[in-house]
Specification:
The protein has 194 residues and is an alpha/beta fold. The protein contains six helices and seven strands, in the order βαβββαββαβααα. Helix 1 packs across helix 5 and helix 2 packs across helix 3. It is found in: Cytoplasm.
Length: 194
């Protein structure tokens, strides 16, 4: 029997012009997880994502595929679905790491299932997977100031003040992913959904 594997998808937009955007927190968290498993992102044979395969939680830990889709946020579902088929990962073993407007900056929430809440990456995943019953590590970015459109806000870089805190937020979100895969949802929520 083959050992079960988790697919952890960091949501974001590819390319240097988006690298520091709030919308790219999923990429940043997966970069941290890749360093924890000692891997470097490489192009997957599907051609639509970069992946790292490894184990989280030390030697003998949980088998994981970390993925960064190589497409814009609203097309994320295709690459995720292709990777899930390739690695034979059921929806209940998929984790999406993404930005969340409805949670204050420097906080996060972990949950399973739910709607897309206007998030194009989640909408695309739900459509391609024909289910929303995957896990979400929702990393707070807060609401846009004044009358700024949410779409403009998520595509802006973090502020100077936020950038000082960001490494800690990324580290904590990576801890939450690791906890989810090794300790389960309830225990993770008790620790991280504060």
């Amino acid at each position: 029997m083959t050992e079960p594997v988790w697919l952890v998808v960091g949501l974001g937009n590819p390319g240097p012009s988006y690298a520091g955007n709030r919308h790219n927190i999923g990429y940043l968290v997966n970069d941290e997880l890749a360093s924890r498993v000692g891997g470097t992102f490489k192009s997957h044979k599907t051609g639509r994502a970069d992946v790292v395969e490894g184990r989280l939680g030390g030697p003998g830990g949980v088998r994981v595929v970390l993925a960064r889709p190589r497409c814009y946020m609203n097309e994320t579902g295709g690459p995720v679905s292709a990777l899930a088929k390739f690695y034979k990962v059921p929806v209940v073993r998929i984790v999406a790491v993404h930005d969340e407007l409805d949670i204050p900056f420097d906080t996060l929430r972990v949950k399973v299932g739910g709607g897309d809440n206007g998030h194009n990456g989640l909408r695309s995943m739900r459509k391609s997977l024909d289910s929303g019953e995957f896990y979400r590590v929702r990393v707070g970015i807060g609401r846009p100031p004044g009358r700024m459109a949410p779409a403009d806000f998520v595509l802006q870089d973090y502020s100077n003040v936020e950038r000082k805190i960001l490494p800690f937020q990324v580290d904590r979100a990576a801890d939450a992913v690791e906890s989810l895969l090794t300790e389960g949802l309830e225990r993770t929520q008790n620790v991280f959904n504060s």
